[in-house]
Amino acid sequence: MYRSKLPSPAMLVALIALVAALAGSALALPGSNSVKSNDIKRDAVKGTDIAPGAVKPSDLDLIKVDGEPGPLPTASVPAIDLGGPSVTVDVPETGLVAIYARGTGQINGGGNNALAQVHLFEPTLFPNAPRILEFNAAQPELRISTPGTGNLDGTPALTRGGWIVFPADQGKYTFSLYYSVAGGGTGTFANTGLWAGVIG
Residue 10: pLDDT above 90? Predict the structure, then answer.
């Protein structure tokens, strides 16, 4: 009786299965040269895995920014919302919030002690909207936020301004600039800006 030297179909299937098992398998990602965030296990990518210069600060969106060109006039004594600027940040557990504000303001009318004021408002953290910038001249003047106690009026010097940093519980917060006057008159505000970032 003549026997074929070819392997049986069962043997061919077994050999193919063995080669596939020994070679391993790979799953291709859809697209060309693209990896999406849901393709990567959480915390799998470390700083050493990223090429130098591949991620720029603007890619990280660390600082939220908003501005209003104005003019924003008010004669309100209580601090009120004149339409911003406003920014929202998401604070992790044990996070700190850093706020930087600037604006141009002036006060017209009122008494000798009349003031135009800018306040920082956040419904949970700062519902009473503490004052952070103050203007006492009839001509427009620049003010920049300054950290520390006793610096409620800001500073006109670009090199003296700074970030106001404070702790916040984990959660989402929306910060806005509010406006008021003290001592009568009308305050007018322009080119107001608000920057907010999270540390931690």
Answer: no
Amino acid, res. 167: P
The per-residue pLDDT for range 86-113, each reduced to its tens digit, is: 999 989 888 899 999 999 999 998 888 9
Going by their DSSP bridges, the two strands 96-108 and 186-199 should be labelled as antiparallel
Average pLDDT over residues 129-154: 87
Give the integer Cα–Cα distance in Å for 92 and 90.
7
CATH of 59-199, one of 1.10.3470, 2.60.120, 3.10.450, 1.10.150: 2.60.120
Q: What are phi and psi of 58, to 5 degrees?
A: -65, -25
Name the pTM for this structure.
0.72
Distance CA 183, CA 75 (A): 10
How far from 170 is each of 92, 152, 164, CA to CA, in Å?
5, 27, 18
Name 186's Cβ contacts closer than 8 Å, sequence gap at least 6.
Answer: 73, 74, 75, 107, 108, 109, 110
- Name the residue among 158, 80, 164 with its Cα closest to residue 118: 80
Is the pLDDT at 15 greater than 80? The verdict is no
Rg of the chain in Å (alpha carbons): 30
